[in-house]
Design a protein that fits this description.
This protein is α+β, with helices and mostly antiparallel strands. 28% of the residues lie in helices and 24% in strands. The strands form 6 sheets. A 7-stranded mixed sheet has the order 14-15-18-13-21-19-20. A 5-stranded parallel sheet has the order 7-6-5-11-23, with helices on one face. A 4-stranded antiparallel sheet has the order 2-3-1-4, covered by helices on one side. The longest helix has 18 residues.
Length: 530
């Protein structure tokens, strides 16, 4: 097979145009192409008058060797073998099945890999099954009743289940393809395998997460909900078992820690047990909402609404003159701002889109980097205390009962409380309160966001429209801690394998899932199945 890059066609091209254009690009007769498939599809919207689809194709052609000798530059190469190669089991006997703590992307994919290799993993999830979790969240969003163990952060599927289901990643690991293939096999749309910006949508993710769980159980694994790991049993610096819910002890010699970025109590337990960790930078800020129709028009011009384009997105970033980095994050086209708190009297926002991305508003986080120098004390867990402080202030600023503080962008610039909203109405439930967001952000974060807007407005004209709505606060973009691990993925406590967002080495669904796969491979490489 050959791989042909940068094949550009207009939006309304016919399917037959692809092989015909590929043959012309390679300067061969169309009949020499014996088969072909789309490997990647992207959109080139740099010229609003001529938006193009850009394809990468894998092709089987006659006289392949002869064709490669012609001068095509880097545009034509042999297609790489991207198939997943399972790890070879080691020889050390493993007396008990591996434990996986958490059922987010890292935990589920660690479970899949271990299950397929015959290790019968046991997943312990402090939250509830995704179908029950959905009911708990709807109750929270509609009535303001928070379940600290079943919410937008805790429960089957992890935080990513209630997001846009974006599958873009900046890592270049061959396991990324494996993640996409497993998601497609579990019910995700097939186009995630070819789209340059694949996404699933929160509504589809809930179904896929359940399918992954059923696959793990079918492979001999076990999945337990409402099972919080409350302690570790150690001997000579080696894991011997885990304590569950403060009462039960389950013996194990290996455990994948896939605990996500929000389980402060679990990180505190690990720190007390002696697991080495460091405070790390993360980011905090606000959510901003614009009309999705405006984003579509700005990005696609007269092509806005074309069925091959879908809802438009954006990505903005700047090093502001305050000396800090400001950027948009987790942009959700046609989505809503959601309540994502885990603690009483602490308010957290996030963004979520369904598969259709058909909502009236677009939203994105506006974040500013913070780091250990900003934290109150030099302690590994100080980042948790730092973000908790601003979540409490947001809760108070919103008036209690998880009503969120919100402000018109024009009023934010003018540093005055908002009285009412304009044409853009906030989507956050259970409701918002028009106020002054400076009350729930560090001064340097507010100043950096204000300093960033002139650049953002040049990158995306109209981004600074006065009626845009800001809602606070966004604090859970990544984990404020990094769990130290060595070359074979183990922590300072032997047998513990930190993985995913909670390890501090990954961020987003795909990179967390890849990290979970790598942790599973490390266990397989060392041990034989129990």
């Amino acid at each position: 097979m050959l791989r042909l890059f940068e094949l550009k066609l207009p939006l309304d091209h016919a399917p037959d145009d692809l092989p015909r254009t590929a043959a012309a690009a390679m300067r061969i007769p169309l009949a020499d192409i014996t088969s072909w498939e789309i490997r990647r599809t992207a959109v080139d919207a740099r010229k609003k008058s001529e938006i193009l689809l850009v394809y990468t194709l894998d092709l089987a052609v006659r006289h392949e060797d002869r064709l490669l000798k012609k001068k095509h530059g880097r545009r034509l190469t042999p297609a790489p073998d991207e198939s997943y190669r399972p790890a070879t089991p080691g020889s050390i006997p493993l007396p008990h099945p591996p434990i996986i703590v958490g059922s987010g992307p890292a935990g589920l994919f660690a479970g899949l890999i271990l299950g397929r290799a015959g290790y019968r993993p046991v997943i312990l999830e402090r939250g509830r099954a995704v179908e029950d979790r959905c009911l708990d969240l709807e109750r929270f969003w509609s009535q303001g009743f928070l379940d600290p163990e079943s919410n937008a952060q805790f429960g089957e599927g992890g935080a990513g289940t209630f997001s846009d289901g974006k599958l873009t990643t900046r890592i270049h690991d061959p396991r990324c393809r494996k993640v996409l293939e497993e998601l497609a096999a579990a019910g995700a749309p097939a186009d995630i395998l070819t789209s340059a910006k694949p996404h699933i949508g929160s509504d589809r993710l809930r179904i896929i997460v359940r399918s992954l769980r059923e696959t793990i159980i079918g492979l001999g694994g076990e999945v337990r909900f409402s099972s919080r790991v409350s302690g570790l049993k150690l001997a000579a610096g080696q894991l011997q078992g885990v304590e569950i819910n403060g009462t039960e002890v389950r013996e194990c010699r290996t455990a994948v820690l896939a605990i996500g970025h929000s389980a402060r109590d679990t990180f505190a337990m690990l720190h007390q047990a002696g697991l080495e960790m460091l405070a790390k930078p993360f980011a905090i800020g606000l959510r901003i909402e614009h009309p999705q129709a405006w984003v579509d028009q700005t990005q696609f011009g007269s092509f806005a609404g074309h069925p091959r384009l879908g809802a438009a997105d954006y990505k903005l970033a700047v090093h502001a003159d305050t000396g800090r980095y400001a950027y948009t994050f987790c942009m959700c086209p046609g989505g809503e701002v959601i309540a994502a708190a885990t603690e009483p009297e602490g308010l957290v926002t996030n963004g979520m889109s369904l598969a259709a991305r058909a909502g009236v508003n677009a939203n994105s986080a506006l974040l500013v980097d913070v780091g250990p120098a900003d934290f109150p004390v030099p302690h590994p867990l100080a980042g948790f205390d730092f973000r908790r402080e601003w979540e409490k202030r947001a809760f108070q600023s919103g008036g209690g009962n998880f009503t969120a503080p919100a402000q018109l962008l024009d009023d934010f610039f003018r540093i005055r409380p908002s009285q009412q909203f304009g044409s853009v109405l906030p989507t956050y439930r259970p409701g918002t309160r028009a106020t002054d967001l400076d009350d729930c952000l560090p001064d340097y974060v507010s100043r950096t966001i204000r300093a960033a807007f002139p650049v953002f407005a040049r990158q995306l004209p109209g981004f600074d429209r006065p009626d845009a709505v800001l809602t606070g606060v966004e604090t859970r973009s990544s984990c404020p801690v990094r769990l130290i691990r060595n070359g074979d993925f183990q922590s300072s406590i032997g047998g513990i394998y930190p993985a995913g967002e909670g390890s501090g080495y990954a961020g987003g669904i795909v990179s967390a899932a890849v990290d979970g796969i790598r942790a599973a491979e490390a266990i397989i490489t060392n041990f034989s199945p129990p």
